[in-house]
Design a protein that fits this description.
Number of domains: 2
CATH superfamily of the largest domain: NAD(P)-binding Rossmann-like Domain
Order of helices and strands: EHEHEHEHEHEHEHEHHHHHHHH
Shape: globular
CATH architecture of the largest domain: 3-Layer(aba) Sandwich
CATH topology of the largest domain: Rossmann fold
Largest sheet: 8 strands, mixed
């Protein structure tokens, strides 16, 4: 078996590390220096410093080499570059090869989820073999061997079970879930909400505020996901609440870091210029808000995040507007 992991950022490298203990794994990197570091030093200090990588993990800058004859293709590319990278290797991916996305974002121009982008680029592909891996998965903790769990959402149950077997490790538990739509929407929305929680932390607010944000964020996530055809049961699970808790609590989250800086009063440009990895929520918030409008879903927290990111609204004013909303029933508001 050969698995191709496309993208050598922190999460792609972590997934490659997990897979290399079970199957032949090739990791594609756009950056020759990163590929050289992985192959020669068994490190990826550009994105995952401090960890030794398995010697079995091979990196390449030749995307054709990576996906040629691959039994499974894992796409670890940010949403804004996902389509172009997949287009560059589409002709080398078999029609019945499972394609699994690691990206938690929305394509800005089309409002497509990444599995929809995959099927747009690979129109003759079996849709039941295009899915997503998602959950409360902070890369550094998984590399340290801390216990964690994830979801593989895929329409083909047999293929999902086989992927589950390969991805499962001693400290990495994998569940299957047929709800691709709900799992992807949960992943995209939680990035927006992680920015909100970071703003609250940056302003020095405590546990009451965080608990309120997470709880109401779950409501907004569920509203949108169900409106788009997701299964209600997905959202209190690993892809929804699990990922939301991890990302909204963790300073390791890039989206949380962005929000924290905004809460401190720093500019978005200043914050993102210091980061060598993409915070998906910065780009995905606009897509999430457009989807909410399309499906007539009220998402007040996401809306205020969007105003801070794109309109320069002060975070204190954003909080004030959230708190000053008309009183409602918890079940209806």
């Amino acid at each position: 078996m050969k698995y191709a992991v496309i993208g050598a950022g922190s999460w792609g490298t972590t997934i490659g590390t997990l897979l290399s203990g079970a199957v032949d794994t090739v990791l594609w990197s756009r950056n020759p220096e990163v590929a050289h570091d992985i192959n020669s030093n068994h490190r990826n200090d550009a994105y995952l410093d401090g960890f030794d990588l398995p010697e079995a993990l091979h990196a390449t800058t030749d995307i054709e080499e990576a996906v040629r004859d691959a039994d499974v293709v894992v796409m670890g590319v940010p949403s804004h570059g996902y389509r172009s990278v997949l287009e560059s290797c589409a002709q080398h991916i078999g029609r019945t090869t499972p394609v699994i996305s690691l990206s938690k974002g929305i394509e800005r121009e089309t409002l497509m989820r990444m599995t929809e982008v995959t099927l747009d680029v690979l129109p003759r592909h079996d849709p039941n073999l295009v899915g997503v891996l998602t959950g409360p998965n902070l890369a550094r903790e998984i590399m340290e061997g801390q216990p964690a769990a994830t979801v593989i959402a895929l329409g083909d149950g047999n293929a999902a079970t086989e992927l589950q077997r390969v991805f499962m490790g001693k400290t990495f538990r994998v569940y299957t879930n047929p709800d691709v739509v709900g799992s992807e929407i949960a992943g995209a929305v939680k990035n927006v909400m992680a920015i909100a929680s970071g703003m609250a932390a940056g302003k020095g607010f405590g546990d009451n505020t965080l608990a309120t944000l997470i709880t109401r964020s779950l409501v907004e996530m569920t509203r949108l996901g169900v409106a788009m055809g997701g299964d209600f049961r997905t959202f209190p699970g690993l892809a929804g609440l699990g990922d939301l808790i991890a990302t909204c609590n963790s300073s390791q989250s890039r989206n949380h870091k962005v929000g924290f800086g905004l809460g401190e009063g720093r500019s978005l440009d200043e914050i993102t210029s210091e980061m060598n990895m993409v915070a998906e929520g910065v780009k995905s918030t606009s897509g999430v808000l457009q989807l909410a409008d399309r499906h007539n879903v009220d998402m007040p927290i996401a809306k205020q995040v969007g105003r801070v990111l794109y309109e320069g609204l002060d975070t204190t004013q954003a909080l004030h507007e959230l708190m000053a909303r008309a009183a409602k029933s918890e079940f209806k508001g």
